[in-house]
Design a protein that fits this description.
Layout lengths: L6 E2 H8 L3 H9 L6 E3 L2 E4 L4 H13 L4 H36 L1
Antiparallel strand pairs: 1-3, 2-3
């Protein structure tokens, strides 16, 4: 894997003015994936929005890592349920249109 699309954790932490250990703790909770390449740690760009939300929860709202873990999993569950609801509504709409004909 080429690391040119990856975000170096050291640089990310410097930019956000946070400790590297925060990202490590998120990884320990299974909330982020850390990629090791050439003795350095990286993040995938797709993870940045959720990591930045977790940073705000922790540093701005003083939510501990256990709370962030619970919130993150609940938000994912809500998103999944919303997708299922949308799919069900679309199927119902198709069924109702076929019944009207």
């Amino acid at each position: 894997m080429s690391n040119k699309n990856l975000i170096q954790i050291k640089q990310f932490c410097i930019y956000h003015e946070i400790e590297n250990t925060f990202i490590t703790e998120l990884h320990n909770y299974g909330l982020v994936e850390i990629i090791m390449e050439e003795n350095d740690e990286y993040l995938q760009p797709e993870q940045l929005p959720s990591i930045e939300k977790m940073i705000r929860m922790h540093y701005d709202l003083n939510i501990n890592l256990e709370g962030i873990d619970a919130i993150y999993h609940l938000l994912n569950k809500i998103e999944t349920l919303q997708q299922h609801l949308t799919n069900t509504q679309n199927k119902l709409r198709i069924y109702e249109e076929n019944q009207a004909e």
